[in-house]
Structure formats: structure tokens, C-alpha cells
Amino acid sequence: MTANTQLLGISNAIVDILAHVDQDFIDQIGAVTGAMNLIDEDRARDIYEKMGPATEISGGSVANTVAGFANMGGSAAFIGHVRKDQLGEIFNHDMRTLGVDIRLEPAKIGVPTGRSYILITPDGQRTMNTYLGSCTELGIADITVDTVGEPKAILLEGYVWDVAEGPALVRKAMNIAADIGASVALSLSDSHCVDRHRESFLEAVKSGVHIVIADDDEIGALMQTDTFEDSVAAVAEYDNLFVLTRSERGSVIVHRDKHVVQEATPVDKVVDSTGAGDAYCAGFLYGWANDWPLDECALIGTYCATRVIQQLGARIEPGLLDDYSPGVSDSADS
Amino acid sequence: MTANTQLLGISNAIVDILAHVDQDFIDQIGAVTGAMNLIDEDRARDIYEKMGPATEISGGSVANTVAGFANMGGSAAFIGHVRKDQLGEIFNHDMRTLGVDIRLEPAKIGVPTGRSYILITPDGQRTMNTYLGSCTELGIADITVDTVGEPKAILLEGYVWDVAEGPALVRKAMNIAADIGASVALSLSDSHCVDRHRESFLEAVKSGVHIVIADDDEIGALMQTDTFEDSVAAVAEYDNLFVLTRSERGSVIVHRDKHVVQEATPVDKVVDSTGAGDAYCAGFLYGWANDWPLDECALIGTYCATRVIQQLGARIEPGLLDDYSPGVSDSADS
Fold first, then answer.
1. Minimal Cα–Cα distance from B19 to chain A, Å?
2. Searching chain B, which residue's CA lies closest to the CA of residue A314?
3. Which residues of chain A have a Cβ shorter than 8 Å from any chain B Cβ?
4. Do A93 and B49 touch (CB under 8 A)?
5. Contacting residues of B for A49, CB less than 8 Å apart
6. Is the complex ipTM higher than 0.95?
7. How confident is the model at residue A334, as a pLDDT?
8. For the segment A96-120, what is each residue's pLDDT rounded down to a tens digit?
9. Rounded to whole angstroms, how far apart are CA atoms B311 and B315?
């Protein structure tokens, strides 16, 4: 079962709990607007009591990407920590039903499954308040040659560093990857996360990580650059493959002196921008895992992102990519 | 807290679990397309394992109506049975946060909170597969002068009859209503449900129920009539107030020889027809509870239904009715 896995995600297992609020609500609870705010159990209870009726849907950035990858027909697996409770069952169901191989059993003891209270303001911004819950119990003991298997690539994200054993388990995963010849991709999560763990991220990028996935804020935070052009120049000094996304300004793939510039596809109406980066990543890695040229990887990444922002929710719905033909997307320019 | 309650709902507490499927899937699991299929725990597990990624959102017909009623500013309460688990917490949160007074504590033992696996086919039809779970434990002991309080009206629905102690607890609620001078409204749920419990429904309509809420299929099943015109003639023989909805054909209110005909409001696009009847009921009862004339009750009911079919999900979102002025809706004709 593990031998043919193309992509293994290792990260937080989160169920999103989404509600519409006004800006006053965000100010009142003192959250940073538009950011991912880590909260403890008491604060989670407090915010949930105050926020309005909600919708629950499986989330987590790497999990979204892995789900999208499997949804496209890729072979995918996931290592994440849920409690044996209803939210954990929901999370695992939503992965398994797409064919994702769930590598860890739900924990019979411990804190409940993690969730993110996502507050959507009228301007469309999403303020995430994440109670990591059971995710915090993901540890180095969960990363073994058995649970990792032999994937073509392992996808990690910055948020894993927020978990107590995160830095250690990431290192262990990178060591196993090196032993089995797997590539390691790292998505930087958000610029505040980069600020929290910058030195450790840089060390990982220099030793162990092959592909870095970031938006312009995140790569600016990592490279300590002020403009996107400076970031592109800075990352060209590294050996890694950089996948840099810029929302409506498209994306740029940088590998040393090789650049691929991909324009975004104009859309009439953005229904919900959540998961655009995760969907891009799913598409890009799907192309990459199938040895497509980088420009085609960027094209299908753009296609996935374009589709996901025209629907509600962060994950590509089954069948959404049925009409995709490589090189014949509805991208404006390629 | 109970003295000023306008509307008390007594019914099933259900979390909807929605996923898109093709017609083959419905055929394969042997469900009746477009109907509410009652399922047991084993079948619930089987269907959930087979169905795709889902979205969770609080549901239940009476609960939707009570939530909408509170959302409009009405004073509302609910008696329903959930287990003390995460789905139960979600259900109660989504009610409480609208100001609905939840009258029962979650059960610390017993089967898990009820849920309905709602399968949406490409033609927009919804096939419900409902595992009642903790709802089946709602019993006559839960209906007391304390839990009922002194509402202006009690809303029941046909599905309550599917619960073991349903008929008995409904009778107890009607007796308490008679003692305190509260009105009783009964929503007929669906025509299959009417077929299951027709005699008992007729008895309730003749003694205890004041307002009957039904669509054309349901009232046809209850009155054993073939056409809507025949149903209207048949219900005029009863003393009850009948609220009859007909989707895009509008609604008709019948009270003996008094008729109010309300046209539907044309919409460009039906996003999701789920909850149209529940929303109509919320609006109508809101007007009724505030002693509005019947034509204005029908008007605001239509307004609510028109709004809810233009959004995803069965419940009216907070703020959706902020711009409603009595008598100045966007209804075509009134």
C-alpha cells in the first residue's frame, strides 16, 4: 500500500468551523485580522460561545493539498494526529473517501481533535483561530520507516513547527526521506509563522528540503526582502526549487537561473479565496510527481487555484478537474 | 426566561452531513431518491464510508424553523435530544448563538447525536438518510410544565412520530398547551411520513393542533386528495388554520372560508432549495406570533423562503432579513 505513494503529507489534522462575523467581533476578541491565531482550549470555548452559527468542513493546509492531490487521481497518504472523536472521524472520512491512506490510528486518549474557528468578515477576509488540540500530540514516535513508507515526496508545512515535537519530527522525516531518496516539499504556511521559526526554516531549506512553496509575504519574511523581485533574486542563490504564488498576480517558479512565470487566470467573481494556495500546491505537485515540465506544473496549479476560488470551501470538490487537459487550461497566458 | 417565549419547537436535533454524489450512488445504496430515508447505525456507518467528502451544518426541520424565528428577532426555545458529544455541541451552539433557549441538557449516556447524510445529485435533488441516534431517546419525561414553560405556540413536526415515545410525548405537549392556552402548530414533514402516521396525524389535527403546515404532497396524503384544489376544499371543512406551500407556485392560507393566496417570488437562480419550507414556516409564524394579518404572514414567509433558496444551507443566515419591511417585500404580487 505504501510502495506506490506519490505524496505523503505530514501536518496538522484540522476541522474548519466557519462563521460570518463583522469586524467589531474580530476586534472584540482581539484576534489579528486575516492571520492564523493560535488559541488554547479556554479561548477556543470562549470564541465558539460568542461566534454565530457555523459550518464544519475538513481543513488544514497540507491536508487540503493532499486531498486535492488524491482527488486528481494522485496516490496520497497523510500522517496527522486526531482524537477518536466525531471531529476526528469527520477529518479521516473526508481524506479516506478521496483515497488518501491515513497512516495513524485516532488516539483513544488525550485532547480532542484540532479545529480552526474561521471568522469571515464582510470584506471576505478570513481570520483563523486555531485550537491545535490533538495535533499537539503528533510526535517523533509517529514518524517511522513504517508510517512514512516510500513516497516520492513528503509535504511539510511551517505550522508543524508550532507543535512541541514539530522541529524534531520534521528532522526525523527529512532523515528518512534522505535514506529512501524521497524529495521534501515545505509550504511556509504564513508570514507570522515564518517570523516565529525563521532560523529553523532556513536551516531546513539548506539541508533536507528540496521544494519551497510560499506566497510573496512568506518568501519576503524568509529572505528578509522588501520586494518580490528581491525575493526572486534571493532564492535563485539556493539549490531548492521555489514555487512562489502571488494571488491575482500569478506565480513564479524559480530553480537557480531557470524561471517560469505563470499568469493568473482572471475570474468574474471570487466566491471564496480560502485554499487557493493549497489547491495550487496540489496541482503543481501532481504535475511534478508525474514528471511534467515545470511550466505545465505551474499551469495545472493555476487551474486548480482558479477552480477552488470559484467554489465555497478550501478543498477541490470531486470531479472539479474532470475537464482538465494538460496545456489546454483556461489560463490567460502560459 | 420561559415566560416571554413566543415559539417552542419540539423535535429532532439533527446535524446535516452533506455531500455531492451521482444517481448511481443513490441506486447502489438503495435509498429512495428525494425522500427522507430512516437508517440504523450500521447503515449509517456503511453510507458514510462510501460517500465522499462532506460538509457539516446543523439541521432538522423544526430546528431550522426555530433558528430562523430567533434569527428574525423572535423569542424562541427548543426541546430536542442530543448526546454530550461534538455533534451535539455543534447543534446546541448553532441554536444558542441565535438566542434559542435550549431546554434539555445533552445526555451523558446513550447513542450519539443524530445526523442526516444528505446526498445531493447533479439535478439538485436531496436524498436524506437519517440516523436518528440520540433523537430516539426524546421521551415523555422530557415534556414537562417546566421544560415547556408558557410559549405562545408550540411547533411539532411529523417526524417526531417516528420516535418510540413520539406519539405519547406529542400528546403530552398538546395537553400542556391546552392547559396554558398555547397554540400548537404541526408541520407534516413529508408525504411518506404522512403515509406512516396518517390516522394519528388526523386525530391530532382534530384535537390539539391549531395550525397545520404542509406542502401540496403532504396535504394531499393527509386529505387523500388528488389535486391541490381538492385539498384546499377538504381542509376548509376543518377548524384549523392551514398553511399550504407549493414551491414556485406560491402558497395558500386557508381558515374555514377565508383564503389568502400568495404568489412566489421569481428568482434568477435557485442555489439550494433545502429549507425553503422551514424558512417559510419561520417567517409565517413570526408574523403570526406578532399578530400580523394573515396576508402579511404569508408575505414574510415567502420573503424568508425566497432568501434561503438563494444561499447554501437550510437555515437563514444572520442578517439576511435586516432589509425586510413588512408589506414592502420583493414579492411579485400580494
1. 10
2. B55
3. 20, 48-58, 67, 85-87, 90, 93-94, 97-98, 112-113, 312-313, 315, 317-319
4. yes
5. 93, 97
6. no
7. 33
8. 999 999 999 999 999 999 999 999 9
9. 9
The Cα of B96 is separated from the nearest Cα of chain A by a number of Å equal to 9
By the 10 Å C-beta count (0-12 exposed, 13-18 middle, 19+ buried), A141 is classed as exposed
For residue B326, the model assigns a pLDDT of 60
Q: What is the assigned CATH class of domain A7-11+61-109+135-308?
A: alpha beta
Q: What is the pLDDT of residue A327?
A: 52
Judge whether residue B334 has pLDDT over 70. no
Residue of A nearest to B317 (CA): A53
pLDDT confidence tier of residue B323, bands split at 50, 70 and 90: confident
Interior CA angle at B33 toward B30 and B36, to 5°? 95
Burial of B198 (0-12, 13-18, 19+ CB in 10 A): middle
Spans of chain A, pLDDT less than 70: 1-3, 320, 325-334
For residue A80, what is its C-alpha cell? 496527522
Domain ranges of chain A: 7-11+61-109+135-308
Partners of residue B93 in chain A, C-beta under 8 Å: 48-49, 53-54
Cα angle A210-A216-A217, degrees, rounded to a multiple of 5: 105
Give the closest residue to A118 by CA, choosing from A110, A127, A109: A127
Out of A87, A93, A112, the one facing B48 most closely (by C-beta) is: A93
In CATH, B7-11+61-110+136-308 is 3.40.120.10: no
DSSP code, position A85: S
